[in-house]
Amino acid sequence: MLKIGLIFHSASNDNMGVGALSVSEVAIIRRIAERRNLPVTIKVIDSIAERPAYVTGEDIEIRPTRPLRKPLDFFRAIRGCDMVIDIGGGDSFADIYGPRRLTQMLMMKYLTHLARKPLVLAPQTFGPFRHRLSTFLARQSIRLSAITTTRDSLSTACLREMGIRGDIIEASDVALRLPYDPPAKRPEGGPVRIGINVSGLLMGGGYTRDNMFGLKMDYPKLMRDILQGFADHPDACEIHLVPHVVSWTRSTTEDKYREDDYTASVKLSEAFPFVKVAPAFTSPPEAKSYIAGMDFFMGARMHACIAAFSSGVPVVPMAYSRKFAGLFGSLGYEETVDCTTQSAEDILARIFDAYGRRAELKHAQEAALETGLDKLGLYETALGDMMERLARWH
C-alpha cells in the first residue's frame, strides 16, 4: 500500500479555492491509482480546523498538526508517508505574504527533505522572491525536490531566473479536474444568469486594509457599478453574487473574517435587493456546481473563475496579482482584466464587451481548456510514474 502525504493542501479550508486544489489533487491521485492498479492511501496533513472535512473517503486520513508549534509532530506525520505532494496553497510559495507564512512553508519542506521522503511540488505559482535569503532557501529546496511543476509560464520563468536548471514541468491548475454536478438543461428564453464573485478581501482593502494589492480603482464602487450596469441592461439579467471564501463560523469579529466573500455579498445585496446571494457553500464541488449553472461569470477569486472556465461558462477573471494572467494567458485565454493597471472605466467596458461576445468566449474557452488538460496531463504522467516506481520498490 503506497502512502501519499499531502502538505499545503487543506481538507477544510474556508477558501473554496484552496479546497478545490485538495479535492482535485485527490481526484487525480485516485484516477492514477485506478488506471495503474496501485493501492494507495492519502494522508492530508492539515491545520486544525472547525469546518468539517470535505476531503473524505475510506482512503483518506486527516492528520491535524501545528508545524510551527510542534515541528516534531509534523516530522512524525511525514515519516509515515512514502512520498509527499506539496501544492503550496496554490500561490503561497513566495515571500510577499509575510515571514510567518514563508517560515512555515520552508520548514515543512526541509523537514520533508530531512525525513528523506520524495517531495513533489505540484502545479502552483512560484514567487515572487524579493529577498536574497528567501530566494536561496527556496532554490535549495526546489533542487532537492523529486518533481517540480509550475502552473504557468511566468512561474517557469521565475524559477529559471532563480537559477533552477533542472527539469521543470509546466502544467496547469489541478482544479481543472475538480468534479462537479453539471446543471440541468434550462428552457430557452429565460433570463441570462450573471454570476459575480465579490472578494471580501478586496472589499476591505486587503489584509492591511490600505489597498495592499495596489488596485488602480475603488473596488467596492466598481462592484456596485457592475451590478447597476447589469440591472440596467436591455437583456433580462438574473444576477447572482457567488462567494468563494465562506467562513464556517459566522462572527462579528471583522479582523478574523475580513476575507469572507459571503458576508461581503450579503452586505452588498442590501443596496441591490434584486440580486440573489448564492448559498454558503460547504465544499468546492458544491461551489463549482452552482457556478456551472451561470451563463456568464466574473470575479476576483481565481478559483471561482477556474470553476467557471472548466465547466464551460464564459468568464472574465478580475486579476489583482500576476497569477491570473500567468494561468489563463498560458492557456491562450486573453479575457483577464487587471485591477492593478486598468481603470474602472476600462474594466467596465471590457466586461460588458465580453458579455456581448459570450458565445465567442465559450469557443475560446473550449480550446484553452483542452490545452490546459493536455498540460496537466504532463504532471499526471510524471506523478503516476513516480507512484509506480515507489510501489515496485515496496
| CATH class designation of the largest domain | Alpha Beta
CA radius of gyration: 21 Å
Q: Runs with pLDDT <50, length 5+?
A: none
Overall tally of structural domains: 2
Number of H/I helices: 13
N-to-C CA distance: 8 Å
Query: Could you give me the name of the CATH homologous superfamily of the largest domain?
Result: Glycogen Phosphorylase B
Q: Which second-level CATH architecture of the largest domain applies?
A: 3-Layer(aba) Sandwich
CATH structural fold name of the largest domain: Rossmann fold
Helix content: 40-55%
The ordered H/E elements are EHEEHEHEHEHEEHHEHEHEHEHEHH
The order of strands across the largest sheet is: 3-2-1-4-5-6-7
Shape: globular
Oligomeric state: single chain
Secondary structure blueprint with pairings:
Blueprint: E1 2-7, H1 16-35, E2 40-46, E3 60-64, H2 71-79, E4 83-86, H3 99-114, E5 119-124, H4 132-144, E6 147-150, H5 153-162, E7 169-170, E8 192-197, H6 200-203, H7 219-231, E9 237-241, H8 261-269, E10 276-277, H9 284-291, E11 296-299, H10 302-310, E12 315-319, H11 322-330, E13 337-338, H12 344-356, H13 358-393
Parallel strand pairs: 1-2, 1-4, 2-3, 4-5, 5-6, 6-7, 8-9, 8-11, 9-10, 11-12, 12-13
Helix pairs in contact: 1-13, 2-3, 3-4
